[in-house]
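Justification of resources, computational component.

The compute hours requested in this renewal are based largely on the per-chain cost of generating structure records like the one below. Each record pairs the submitted sequence with a full structure-token output. That output is archived, and it is also reused by downstream analysis tasks.
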Amino acid sequence: MGIRADYVTRPREWIASILAREPRFLSAAQIHQGLERDGARVSLSTVYRTLDRLQAKGDITARPDADGEVTYMLCEPTRHHHHAICRSCGRVEDVDCAAMEQFAESLRARNGFELDGHAIEFFGKCGACR
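The structure output for this chain reads:
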């Protein structure tokens, strides 16, 4: 998984690299710290602009953390899925959403309600933290 090659710049490549090796949501500040550790000289404002662009292109997903800070994760844009997030280490696992499709069909059949979107996250402890 990575960013699409049609608009790769060095900062986008570096940020995608940080996100690819961390299977958890990261704040812009955490990404910036990772870039500094790697020796990449990128300003925090460039990190924010790059994250905004990557999110607009569908290469990353964003969500607020428990404190309301927006965090980011590299995400597969072509396959609809949800996330299971470990409350201990923050690791994120993709969850297939076949059951959600059945639920949406049930809403249509029983209530005539047509879903145009939804957001579901699962929380608990990953196998390593249990």
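The chain has a mean pLDDT of 86. The first helix runs from residue 10 to 21.
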